[in-house]
Design a protein that fits this description.
alpha/beta; Nucleotidyltransferase, domain 5; 3 domains; 6-stranded mixed beta sheet; 14 helices; 8 strands; 52% helix
Protein backbone atom coordinates (compact mmCIF):
# COMPACT_ATOMS: atom_id res chain seq x y z
CA UNK A 1 0.00 0.00 0.00
CA UNK A 2 1.18 3.50 -0.85
CA UNK A 3 -0.48 6.57 0.68
CA UNK A 4 -1.18 9.19 -1.95
CA UNK A 5 -2.79 12.64 -1.97
CA UNK A 6 -4.81 13.77 -5.01
CA UNK A 7 -3.09 17.16 -4.86
CA UNK A 8 0.25 15.44 -5.48
CA UNK A 9 -0.98 13.69 -8.63
CA UNK A 10 -0.35 16.67 -10.92
CA UNK A 11 2.61 19.11 -10.94
CA UNK A 12 2.00 22.76 -9.99
CA UNK A 13 2.45 23.92 -13.61
CA UNK A 14 0.27 21.23 -15.21
CA UNK A 15 -2.19 22.29 -17.93
CA UNK A 16 -5.18 20.95 -15.98
CA UNK A 17 -4.52 23.46 -13.19
CA UNK A 18 -4.58 26.28 -15.75
CA UNK A 19 -7.90 25.00 -17.09
CA UNK A 20 -9.47 24.83 -13.63
CA UNK A 21 -8.20 28.27 -12.59
CA UNK A 22 -9.55 29.75 -15.82
CA UNK A 23 -12.95 28.05 -15.44
CA UNK A 24 -13.27 29.53 -11.95
CA UNK A 25 -13.01 33.01 -13.47
CA UNK A 26 -15.49 32.47 -16.30
CA UNK A 27 -19.18 33.36 -16.15
CA UNK A 28 -21.04 30.02 -16.19
CA UNK A 29 -24.47 31.29 -15.19
CA UNK A 30 -26.03 29.93 -18.40
CA UNK A 31 -25.12 26.37 -17.42
CA UNK A 32 -26.86 26.68 -14.04
CA UNK A 33 -30.29 27.71 -15.38
CA UNK A 34 -31.41 24.14 -15.97
CA UNK A 35 -30.62 23.02 -12.39
CA UNK A 36 -31.48 26.19 -10.52
CA UNK A 37 -33.91 25.68 -7.61
CA UNK A 38 -37.49 26.78 -8.33
CA UNK A 39 -40.22 27.03 -5.75
CA UNK A 40 -40.03 25.64 -2.23
CA UNK A 41 -39.41 21.96 -3.05
CA UNK A 42 -35.76 20.93 -3.43
CA UNK A 43 -34.80 19.26 -6.71
CA UNK A 44 -32.51 16.33 -7.24
CA UNK A 45 -28.80 16.80 -6.70
CA UNK A 46 -26.84 17.58 -9.85
CA UNK A 47 -23.18 17.50 -10.83
CA UNK A 48 -21.69 20.97 -10.63
CA UNK A 49 -21.56 22.45 -14.16
CA UNK A 50 -18.24 24.08 -13.27
CA UNK A 51 -16.68 20.63 -12.95
CA UNK A 52 -18.29 19.40 -16.18
CA UNK A 53 -17.09 22.47 -18.10
CA UNK A 54 -13.56 21.93 -16.79
CA UNK A 55 -13.66 18.23 -17.66
CA UNK A 56 -14.78 18.73 -21.24
CA UNK A 57 -12.48 21.69 -21.75
CA UNK A 58 -9.46 19.73 -20.56
CA UNK A 59 -10.64 16.65 -22.51
CA UNK A 60 -10.52 18.61 -25.77
CA UNK A 61 -7.17 20.08 -24.75
CA UNK A 62 -6.03 16.48 -24.31
CA UNK A 63 -7.57 15.39 -27.62
CA UNK A 64 -10.43 13.36 -26.08
CA UNK A 65 -13.73 13.61 -27.94
CA UNK A 66 -15.66 10.62 -26.58
CA UNK A 67 -17.81 10.59 -23.44
CA UNK A 68 -16.99 6.95 -22.77
CA UNK A 69 -13.26 7.64 -23.06
CA UNK A 70 -13.63 10.62 -20.73
CA UNK A 71 -15.45 8.41 -18.21
CA UNK A 72 -12.58 5.92 -18.36
CA UNK A 73 -9.95 8.59 -17.86
CA UNK A 74 -11.78 10.01 -14.85
CA UNK A 75 -11.10 6.68 -13.15
CA UNK A 76 -7.58 6.01 -14.41
CA UNK A 77 -5.71 9.21 -15.34
CA UNK A 78 -4.27 11.56 -12.72
CA UNK A 79 -5.32 14.97 -14.21
CA UNK A 80 -8.96 13.86 -14.53
CA UNK A 81 -8.90 12.27 -11.06
CA UNK A 82 -7.58 15.55 -9.69
CA UNK A 83 -10.48 17.44 -11.26
CA UNK A 84 -13.11 14.94 -10.06
CA UNK A 85 -11.62 14.48 -6.60
CA UNK A 86 -11.40 10.74 -7.17
CA UNK A 87 -15.14 10.35 -7.94
CA UNK A 88 -16.20 8.75 -11.25
CA UNK A 89 -18.82 10.21 -13.58
CA UNK A 90 -21.28 8.39 -15.85
CA UNK A 91 -20.74 8.76 -19.60
CA UNK A 92 -24.44 9.59 -20.11
CA UNK A 93 -24.09 12.61 -17.82
CA UNK A 94 -20.95 13.71 -19.64
CA UNK A 95 -22.46 13.23 -23.10
CA UNK A 96 -25.70 15.06 -22.29
CA UNK A 97 -23.83 18.02 -20.84
CA UNK A 98 -21.45 18.29 -23.78
CA UNK A 99 -24.21 18.87 -26.34
CA UNK A 100 -27.10 20.11 -24.21
CA UNK A 101 -26.11 23.75 -23.59
CA UNK A 102 -25.54 25.36 -26.99
CA UNK A 103 -26.52 28.92 -25.95
CA UNK A 104 -24.52 28.78 -22.72
CA UNK A 105 -21.52 27.39 -24.58
CA UNK A 106 -21.74 30.13 -27.19
CA UNK A 107 -21.85 32.73 -24.40
CA UNK A 108 -18.83 31.08 -22.77
CA UNK A 109 -16.88 31.40 -26.02
CA UNK A 110 -17.78 35.09 -26.19
CA UNK A 111 -16.80 35.52 -22.53
CA UNK A 112 -13.37 34.01 -23.11
CA UNK A 113 -12.88 36.21 -26.19
CA UNK A 114 -13.71 39.28 -24.08
CA UNK A 115 -11.05 38.26 -21.53
CA UNK A 116 -8.50 37.89 -24.33
CA UNK A 117 -9.40 41.34 -25.66
CA UNK A 118 -9.12 42.87 -22.19
CA UNK A 119 -5.62 41.42 -21.85
CA UNK A 120 -4.65 42.81 -25.26
CA UNK A 121 -4.10 39.36 -26.76
CA UNK A 122 -6.56 39.81 -29.65
CA UNK A 123 -7.17 42.92 -31.78
CA UNK A 124 -9.53 41.63 -34.54
CA UNK A 125 -8.69 44.31 -37.11
CA UNK A 126 -7.85 41.57 -39.62
CA UNK A 127 -9.48 38.14 -39.63
CA UNK A 128 -8.96 35.05 -41.75
CA UNK A 129 -11.77 32.59 -42.51
CA UNK A 130 -11.75 29.00 -43.72
CA UNK A 131 -14.02 25.97 -43.63
CA UNK A 132 -13.39 22.40 -42.46
CA UNK A 133 -15.34 19.45 -43.83
CA UNK A 134 -15.71 17.07 -40.90
CA UNK A 135 -16.95 13.49 -41.30
CA UNK A 136 -20.45 13.05 -39.89
CA UNK A 137 -21.62 10.18 -37.71
CA UNK A 138 -23.60 8.65 -40.58
CA UNK A 139 -22.82 6.10 -43.24
CA UNK A 140 -23.22 6.62 -46.96
CA UNK A 141 -25.63 3.67 -47.04
CA UNK A 142 -28.02 5.47 -44.66
CA UNK A 143 -29.20 7.85 -47.43
CA UNK A 144 -32.55 6.87 -48.95
CA UNK A 145 -34.99 8.23 -51.56
CA UNK A 146 -38.46 9.58 -50.76
CA UNK A 147 -40.25 6.37 -51.81
CA UNK A 148 -38.13 4.26 -49.47
CA UNK A 149 -38.47 6.70 -46.57
CA UNK A 150 -42.26 6.88 -46.91
CA UNK A 151 -42.47 3.10 -46.88
CA UNK A 152 -40.15 2.85 -43.87
CA UNK A 153 -42.14 5.46 -41.93
CA UNK A 154 -45.30 3.47 -42.45
CA UNK A 155 -43.57 0.26 -41.36
CA UNK A 156 -42.03 1.97 -38.31
CA UNK A 157 -45.42 3.30 -37.19
CA UNK A 158 -46.93 -0.15 -37.55
CA UNK A 159 -44.02 -1.55 -35.54
CA UNK A 160 -44.68 0.92 -32.70
CA UNK A 161 -48.39 0.02 -32.61
CA UNK A 162 -47.62 -3.71 -32.71
CA UNK A 163 -45.12 -3.35 -29.90
CA UNK A 164 -47.68 -1.53 -27.74
CA UNK A 165 -50.09 -4.42 -28.14
CA UNK A 166 -47.35 -6.93 -27.36
CA UNK A 167 -46.39 -5.08 -24.19
CA UNK A 168 -49.98 -5.44 -22.98
CA UNK A 169 -50.18 -9.14 -23.87
CA UNK A 170 -48.95 -12.29 -22.14
CA UNK A 171 -45.81 -12.56 -24.29
CA UNK A 172 -44.23 -9.50 -22.66
CA UNK A 173 -45.20 -10.55 -19.13
CA UNK A 174 -41.80 -12.15 -18.67
CA UNK A 175 -39.95 -8.97 -19.73
CA UNK A 176 -38.60 -6.66 -17.07
CA UNK A 177 -39.52 -2.99 -16.94
CA UNK A 178 -36.10 -2.11 -18.33
CA UNK A 179 -36.54 -4.47 -21.28
CA UNK A 180 -39.99 -3.08 -22.05
CA UNK A 181 -38.74 0.49 -21.96
CA UNK A 182 -35.76 -0.38 -24.18
CA UNK A 183 -37.95 -2.08 -26.80
CA UNK A 184 -40.41 0.80 -26.90
CA UNK A 185 -37.68 3.45 -26.98
CA UNK A 186 -35.80 1.74 -29.84
CA UNK A 187 -38.96 1.52 -31.99
CA UNK A 188 -39.88 5.18 -31.36
CA UNK A 189 -36.35 6.43 -32.02
CA UNK A 190 -36.21 4.61 -35.35
CA UNK A 191 -39.54 6.08 -36.39
CA UNK A 192 -38.42 9.59 -35.38
CA UNK A 193 -35.14 9.28 -37.31
CA UNK A 194 -36.95 8.26 -40.48
CA UNK A 195 -39.51 11.06 -40.04
CA UNK A 196 -36.70 13.62 -39.67
CA UNK A 197 -35.07 12.31 -42.85
CA UNK A 198 -38.40 12.59 -44.68
CA UNK A 199 -38.90 16.14 -43.37
CA UNK A 200 -35.46 17.13 -44.73
CA UNK A 201 -36.33 16.13 -48.31
CA UNK A 202 -38.26 19.32 -49.33
CA UNK A 203 -35.20 21.46 -48.65
CA UNK A 204 -33.00 19.08 -50.64
CA UNK A 205 -35.49 18.94 -53.50
CA UNK A 206 -35.62 22.75 -53.64
CA UNK A 207 -31.83 22.91 -53.80
CA UNK A 208 -31.79 20.32 -56.58
CA UNK A 209 -34.39 22.25 -58.58
CA UNK A 210 -32.35 25.44 -58.22
CA UNK A 211 -29.23 23.61 -59.41
CA UNK A 212 -31.13 22.10 -62.34
CA UNK A 213 -32.20 25.58 -63.51
CA UNK A 214 -28.60 26.78 -63.42
CA UNK A 215 -27.22 23.69 -65.14
CA UNK A 216 -29.93 22.58 -67.55
CA UNK A 217 -27.69 20.09 -69.29
CA UNK A 218 -26.33 18.54 -66.09
CA UNK A 219 -27.69 15.26 -64.81
CA UNK A 220 -28.53 15.44 -61.11
CA UNK A 221 -28.99 12.36 -58.96
CA UNK A 222 -32.15 11.53 -57.05
CA UNK A 223 -32.53 13.40 -53.74
CA UNK A 224 -31.65 11.31 -50.69
CA UNK A 225 -31.66 11.94 -46.93
CA UNK A 226 -29.91 10.04 -44.14
CA UNK A 227 -31.96 7.99 -41.70
CA UNK A 228 -29.07 8.22 -39.21
CA UNK A 229 -28.46 11.97 -39.26
CA UNK A 230 -31.08 13.87 -41.25
CA UNK A 231 -29.07 17.11 -41.23
CA UNK A 232 -25.84 15.60 -42.58
CA UNK A 233 -25.06 16.11 -46.26
CA UNK A 234 -22.72 14.34 -48.67
CA UNK A 235 -19.86 16.72 -49.45
CA UNK A 236 -16.35 16.67 -50.84
CA UNK A 237 -13.76 15.88 -48.17
CA UNK A 238 -10.11 17.04 -47.98
CA UNK A 239 -8.91 13.77 -49.51
CA UNK A 240 -11.10 14.30 -52.59
CA UNK A 241 -13.72 11.70 -51.65
CA UNK A 242 -17.43 12.32 -51.09
CA UNK A 243 -18.87 11.33 -47.70
CA UNK A 244 -21.52 12.55 -45.22
CA UNK A 245 -20.22 15.51 -43.25
CA UNK A 246 -20.65 19.02 -41.90
CA UNK A 247 -18.96 22.27 -42.89
CA UNK A 248 -17.35 23.85 -39.80
CA UNK A 249 -16.60 27.53 -40.44
CA UNK A 250 -13.82 29.14 -38.38
CA UNK A 251 -12.54 32.72 -38.19
CA UNK A 252 -9.14 33.51 -36.70
CA UNK A 253 -7.27 36.68 -35.80
CA UNK A 254 -4.24 36.83 -38.13
CA UNK A 255 -2.00 38.54 -35.56
CA UNK A 256 -2.55 36.18 -32.62
CA UNK A 257 -4.08 33.18 -34.49
CA UNK A 258 -6.84 32.98 -31.92
CA UNK A 259 -10.17 31.46 -32.99
CA UNK A 260 -12.71 34.30 -32.84
CA UNK A 261 -15.71 32.88 -34.72
CA UNK A 262 -17.38 29.46 -35.04
CA UNK A 263 -20.32 28.36 -37.17
CA UNK A 264 -21.57 25.05 -38.60
CA UNK A 265 -23.50 24.48 -41.82
CA UNK A 266 -24.42 21.45 -43.89
CA UNK A 267 -23.61 23.18 -47.16
CA UNK A 268 -20.84 21.57 -49.17
CA UNK A 269 -19.61 24.95 -50.47
CA UNK A 270 -18.29 28.04 -48.69
CA UNK A 271 -20.08 30.56 -50.89
CA UNK A 272 -22.26 32.90 -48.84
CA UNK A 273 -20.54 32.17 -45.51
CA UNK A 274 -18.21 35.20 -45.35
CA UNK A 275 -20.70 37.95 -44.50
CA UNK A 276 -22.45 36.05 -41.62
CA UNK A 277 -19.11 35.12 -40.08
CA UNK A 278 -17.82 38.69 -40.10
CA UNK A 279 -21.03 39.90 -38.46
CA UNK A 280 -20.71 37.20 -35.82
CA UNK A 281 -17.15 38.25 -34.97
CA UNK A 282 -18.20 41.90 -34.70
CA UNK A 283 -21.14 41.03 -32.44
CA UNK A 284 -18.95 38.89 -30.17
CA UNK A 285 -16.17 41.44 -29.86
CA UNK A 286 -18.00 44.75 -30.18
CA UNK A 287 -15.32 45.85 -32.66
CA UNK A 288 -15.44 46.49 -36.39
CA UNK A 289 -13.41 44.20 -38.63
CA UNK A 290 -11.29 46.18 -41.10
CA UNK A 291 -9.83 43.42 -43.28
CA UNK A 292 -11.34 40.03 -44.15
CA UNK A 293 -9.26 37.27 -45.76
CA UNK A 294 -10.74 34.16 -47.39
CA UNK A 295 -10.10 31.88 -50.36
CA UNK A 296 -11.78 31.81 -53.75
CA UNK A 297 -14.48 29.38 -52.64
CA UNK A 298 -16.20 32.18 -50.69
CA UNK A 299 -16.02 34.72 -53.49
CA UNK A 300 -19.24 36.54 -54.41
CA UNK A 301 -19.07 40.01 -55.92
CA UNK A 302 -22.12 41.14 -53.95
CA UNK A 303 -20.27 40.30 -50.73
CA UNK A 304 -17.41 42.58 -51.77
CA UNK A 305 -19.89 45.42 -52.30
CA UNK A 306 -21.50 44.76 -48.89
CA UNK A 307 -18.11 44.70 -47.20
CA UNK A 308 -17.06 47.97 -48.84
CA UNK A 309 -20.21 49.65 -47.50
CA UNK A 310 -19.18 48.59 -44.00
CA UNK A 311 -15.64 49.86 -44.43
CA UNK A 312 -14.11 46.37 -44.75
CA UNK A 313 -11.39 45.46 -47.24
CA UNK A 314 -11.72 41.97 -48.72
CA UNK A 315 -8.64 39.96 -49.64
CA UNK A 316 -9.67 37.03 -51.83
CA UNK A 317 -8.24 35.80 -55.15
CA UNK A 318 -10.36 36.47 -58.26
CA UNK A 319 -11.40 33.53 -60.40
CA UNK A 320 -8.65 33.05 -63.00
CA UNK A 321 -9.53 32.78 -66.72
CA UNK A 322 -9.24 29.37 -68.35
CA UNK A 323 -6.56 30.67 -70.68
CA UNK A 324 -3.29 30.82 -68.72
CA UNK A 325 -1.99 33.63 -70.91
CA UNK A 326 -4.87 35.86 -69.80
CA UNK A 327 -4.63 35.26 -66.04
CA UNK A 328 -3.20 38.72 -65.44
CA UNK A 329 -6.47 40.18 -66.77
CA UNK A 330 -8.31 38.84 -63.71
CA UNK A 331 -6.79 41.72 -61.71
CA UNK A 332 -7.87 44.38 -64.22
CA UNK A 333 -11.19 46.21 -63.63
CA UNK A 334 -14.02 45.31 -66.00
CA UNK A 335 -16.78 47.41 -67.50
CA UNK A 336 -19.57 45.92 -65.40
CA UNK A 337 -17.59 46.07 -62.12
CA UNK A 338 -18.84 48.25 -59.30
CA UNK A 339 -16.32 50.68 -57.75
CA UNK A 340 -15.80 48.31 -54.82
CA UNK A 341 -15.13 45.30 -57.08
CA UNK A 342 -12.77 47.31 -59.32
CA UNK A 343 -10.82 48.44 -56.26
CA UNK A 344 -10.68 44.83 -54.99
CA UNK A 345 -9.25 43.57 -58.30
CA UNK A 346 -6.48 46.16 -58.29
CA UNK A 347 -5.77 45.50 -54.62
CA UNK A 348 -5.33 41.78 -55.20
CA UNK A 349 -3.10 42.45 -58.21
CA UNK A 350 -0.64 44.52 -56.15
CA UNK A 351 2.33 43.10 -54.24
CA UNK A 352 0.99 44.54 -50.99
CA UNK A 353 -2.36 42.81 -51.49
CA UNK A 354 -0.69 39.49 -52.25
CA UNK A 355 1.46 39.84 -49.12
CA UNK A 356 -1.63 40.37 -46.96
CA UNK A 357 -3.48 37.47 -48.58
CA UNK A 358 -0.60 35.08 -47.82
CA UNK A 359 -1.47 35.52 -44.14
CA UNK A 360 -4.68 33.55 -44.76
CA UNK A 361 -2.92 30.24 -45.31
CA UNK A 362 -0.43 30.91 -42.51
CA UNK A 363 -3.33 31.50 -40.11
CA UNK A 364 -6.34 29.40 -41.06
CA UNK A 365 -4.53 26.32 -42.33
CA UNK A 366 -2.52 25.97 -39.11
CA UNK A 367 -5.60 26.51 -36.95
CA UNK A 368 -7.62 23.93 -38.89
CA UNK A 369 -4.77 21.42 -38.78
CA UNK A 370 -4.44 21.70 -35.00
CA UNK A 371 -8.19 21.41 -34.39
CA UNK A 372 -8.36 18.35 -36.63
CA UNK A 373 -5.26 16.59 -35.29
CA UNK A 374 -5.19 17.53 -31.61
CA UNK A 375 -8.60 18.92 -30.54
CA UNK A 376 -10.80 15.93 -31.54
CA UNK A 377 -12.38 17.63 -34.56
CA UNK A 378 -11.31 14.97 -37.04
CA UNK A 379 -14.55 12.95 -36.95
CA UNK A 380 -17.88 13.67 -35.31
CA UNK A 381 -19.42 11.32 -32.78
CA UNK A 382 -22.67 13.30 -32.40
CA UNK A 383 -25.62 13.84 -34.74
CA UNK A 384 -27.54 16.98 -35.61
CA UNK A 385 -26.50 20.54 -36.40
CA UNK A 386 -26.92 21.82 -32.85
CA UNK A 387 -24.78 19.08 -31.30
CA UNK A 388 -22.11 19.43 -33.96
CA UNK A 389 -21.92 23.16 -33.26
CA UNK A 390 -21.43 22.40 -29.56
CA UNK A 391 -18.51 20.10 -30.38
CA UNK A 392 -16.97 22.77 -32.62
CA UNK A 393 -17.30 25.37 -29.84
CA UNK A 394 -15.62 23.03 -27.32
CA UNK A 395 -12.73 22.47 -29.74
CA UNK A 396 -12.34 26.22 -30.37
CA UNK A 397 -12.43 26.95 -26.63
CA UNK A 398 -9.76 24.31 -26.01
CA UNK A 399 -7.58 25.77 -28.77
CA UNK A 400 -7.73 29.25 -27.22
CA UNK A 401 -7.06 27.88 -23.74
CA UNK A 402 -3.97 25.99 -24.91
CA UNK A 403 -2.47 29.08 -26.58
CA UNK A 404 -3.64 31.86 -24.25
CA UNK A 405 -4.60 30.20 -20.94
CA UNK A 406 -1.35 30.95 -19.12
CA UNK A 407 -1.31 34.56 -20.35
CA UNK A 408 -4.90 35.04 -19.18
CA UNK A 409 -3.96 33.81 -15.70
CA UNK A 410 -0.86 36.00 -15.41
Amino acid sequence: MRPQCLEELVPPDHQVRIVWALVERLDLSGFYDAIRARGEDPGRSATDPRLLVALWLYAHVDGVGSARELERRCGEHAPYQWLCGGVNLNHHTLSDFRTGHEKALDALFTNLLAMMQHKGLVHLERISQDGMRVRASAGASSFRRRETLERWVSEARERVETLKRQLEGPVAAEWSAVQRAAQERAAKERMERIERALAALPQLEAAKEKLSRKMAAAKTKAVRASTTDAEARVMKMPDGGFRPGYNVQLAADTESRAVVGVEVTNSGVDSGQAEPMRKQVEERSGRAVKEHLYDGGYLRLEDIDAAQEGGVKVYAPPKPPRNKEQRASAYEPRRDDSPAVAEWRMRMGSEAGQAVYRLRAATSETVNAELRAYRSLDRLLVRGMSKVRCVALWAALAYNVVHFGRMLMS
